[in-house]
Amino acid sequence: MLVQEYKRTYYPILQLTDTAKQAIVLMEDYFVEHWPVCTNGTFVGILNRDALASVSEEASLSELIDEFIPVAVLNTDFIFTAVKLAALNHLTLVPVVTPENILDGIVTANDLLRATAHYTGIELPGGTIVLQMERKEYSFGEINRLVETNDAFITQLNSSINSNNGLLDVIIKINKTEISDVVATFQRYEYNVLYYLGDEWYTNELKDNYNNLMNYLNV
Hints:
Blueprint: E1 14-15, H1 20-30, E2 34-39, E3 42-48, E4 73-74, H2 79-89, E5 93-97, E6 103-108, H3 109-119, E7 127-133, H4 140-148, E8 154-161, E9 168-174, H5 180-188, E10 192-197, E11 201-203, H6 205-217
Parallel strand pairs: 1-2, 4-5
Antiparallel strand pairs: 2-3, 5-6, 7-9, 7-10, 8-9, 10-11
Helix pairs in contact: 2-3
């Protein structure tokens, strides 16, 4: 899962001496909003199309050098390093350079999406369940045990902190597409199942309906 497995090497190169019009045409041809700029093969920075609005079409790109985004990855970097740079800087591509800072390729947003899909197991057959919990409540051993009690096994597990509430979202990929029994087991053990994906997406209506029924009976 290194950058070199996803980089593209057949592409035009923008030089500092090129014009804003040349950059605009190139970005339109490749359907991107960014492009690396070089001088004699050495990477200088990433040009953002928004910066081109401040100069005439005949202006040299060297006039915009202070606007360049100075980020790139190496061939030997893990592909998620490129994903992180793209996300933090809102990039539609990430330049790949050598240790000597020579431009060696680019990785597009589509390439990064493909890598992310592969790494997270989206391409694998099976169902997906998303749990949400306090971080201190997370136990891989228990989650794995509950899945296996339903004659299933985990093929991929990822987690992230939910920025809205600070809780831990746990995304579980299992080998079965019929996952209602696994979902029911998690709910029986009072896990918060946000949603799950078998043949299609479902919201966690089962638990909501159960809570509504209990509230009604308590009236």
